[in-house]
Write a structure and sequence with these properties.
Elements lengths: L6 H4 L14 E8 L3 H12 L4 E4 L15 E2 L7 H6 L2 H12 L1 H11 L7 E8 L2 H16 L6 E4 L15 E10 L2 H14 L3 E3 L4 E5 L4 E5 L3 E9 L10 H5 L2 E10 L4 H7 L5 E4 L5 E5 L5 E8 L7 H15 L8 E11 L6 E6 L2 E5 L6 H15 L4 H7 L10 H24 L2
Parallel strand pairs: 1-2, 1-10, 2-7, 4-12, 10-17
Antiparallel strand pairs: 3-6, 4-6, 5-6, 8-9, 9-10, 11-14, 11-15, 12-13, 13-14, 16-17
Helix pairs in contact: 2-7, 2-11, 5-11
Length: 429
């Protein structure tokens, strides 16, 4: 097994290989999924002296955790559920947890000396006045709530000091967010997990979960009997649990990596080397790599169908050139894609399938920081502190009816709807 052909795989700073499971195993906790959620749940529990096994169907970081945009963004969206039904103390606790999610990543990187090109600085940019007003409201709310990192609103003139493009009317700079090399973070966390006793198995697909006390996880060549199971597969859940699968939409997100830019052009387009994301629902996100490539990505569809690399190069480069016309003649060295799991409420889905089977999914493409938060919540719940998990699991998430024959057309219609909303918002700017 190998990682997909991406810039991240080509620039990985270590190679880890874990054997597949080939026999039966009795364990306290079985974590399914070798991405950020699974790895950090395993680390947290191992540090609490739990005996943990982690199953990955491909390679560590093979999914979204090893191929995403590398944007480390604090916080997560709130649904109306909390505004209408939650008590203020619960809302405040939940907000504080999201606001500190990026700090959890920094703590992990520092604690285990993980080399993943971590850099501070992120700017949310607005393509129209409506989006700018939303950023102003967010800035005021976060400051009033006691956000412990600096926030700075910039107008249409000063935004060019950070993102030198005519596409934006302003932005919000968050010093508490930033960017990193996601695959190197995944590999660093896997190494840390292994060194503290987590039993990691690659090329080991969980085929079936048999509930019970203990529960069982069936794989191709062995069975794990576990007191507790954690499902951390996100968009790659497959047929492992139909109810969880129906709670998320698979969205194809695509990225290109250009050839390395010369210093003059990289300093010109992104003078402060921040990660950038716009406010459109069908959004663009981009940043410079450590070797000064433009990594430019965006949502592609909500059907889960992966486009060809050649099509990605054409379509994503077109979006990049619309923002930075000066990059029209720049070569593209890598193009890749993968699925993210989108929650209709845009809030991570955490909870229990039953008393001893936990899950976390639905990060909606903003999972680098929230996955680490989710791992903290899940591991604390397993260890007896269920307060935050109970709050998050109280959200009633919408399930997509039917199977692929209904959900694919439904999500395609949803994609058209969001594109039309973005068009109207930007048409009126």
């Amino acid at each position: 097994m190998s990682h997909i052909n991406s810039y991240y795989a080509a620039s990985a700073n270590q190679s880890l290989n874990f054997d597949p499971l080939i026999n039966d195993l009795r364990i306290q906790v079985c974590v399914i999924g070798g991405g950020f959620t699974g790895l950090n749940t395993a680390i947290n529990l191992a540090r609490k002296n739990y005996d943990v096994a982690l199953l990955e169907s491909e390679k560590i970081g093979w999914g979204a955790s090893g191929r995403n945009g590398g944007q480390l963004i604090s916080g997560f969206s709130f649904s109306d559920h909390f505004d209408k039904k939650g008590i203020q103390t619960e809302i405040d606790n939940l907000w504080a947890l999201g606001a500190k999610s990026a700090d959890l990543v920094r703590e992990r990187v520092n604690e285990y000396s993980i080399d993943c090109d971590l850099k501070e600085g992120f700017i949310d940019v607005a393509t129209n006045e409506k989006h700018m007003n939303e950023l102003i409201d967010r800035c005021n709310l976060w400051e009033e709530s006691g956000y412990h990192h600096n926030l700075n609103l910039v107008d249409s003139t000063s935004v060019k000091n950070h993102v030198n493009s005519k596409s934006y009317v302003g932005g919000l700079i968050d010093s508490g967010s930033g960017h990193l090399h996601p695959l190197n973070l995944s590999l660093g966390e896997a190494k840390a997990a292994s060194e503290i006793g987590v039993k990691i198995f690659e090329d080991t697909k969980a085929i079936q979960i048999i509930p019970g006390n203990p529960a069982k996880v069936i794989t191709r060549k062995g069975t794990i009997v576990a007191d507790i199971i954690v499902i951390a597969t996100n968009a790659y859940i497959g047929n492992l649990n139909k109810r969880l699968r129906r709670m998320i939409m698979p969205a194809a997100s695509c990225i290109i990596a250009t050839e390395p830019l010369d210093q003059e052009i990289s300093n010109h387009i992104l003078p402060t080397d921040m990660a950038v994301c716009d406010q459109n629902t069908i959004l663009d996100y981009y940043r410079l790599s450590a070797d000064k490539r433009m990594l430019f990505g965006g949502r592609f569809n909500y059907s889960g169908k992966i486009p060809s690399d050649d099509r990605i190069k054409v379509e994503i480069k077109k979006r990049m050139v619309a923002v930075f016309p000066e990059l029209s003649d720049v070569g593209v060295d890598f193009a890749w894609s993968g699925n993210v799991a989108v929650s209709l409420k845009k809030i991570p889905q955490l909870g229990r399938v039953n008393n001893n089977i936990y899950y976390s999914q639905g990060y909606s493409g903003h999972g680098v920081a929230p996955t680490h938060m989710a791992a903290k919540v899940i591991s604390e719940a397993i260890d007896g502190d269920t307060e935050i998990l109970d709050l998050l699991s109280s959200v009633k998430h919408i399930q997509l009816p039917g199977g692929k024959w209904f959900s694919s057309p439904a999500t395609a219609v949803g994609m058209m709807y969001y594109r039309f909303k973005d068009f109207l918002a930007n048409f009126s700017k």
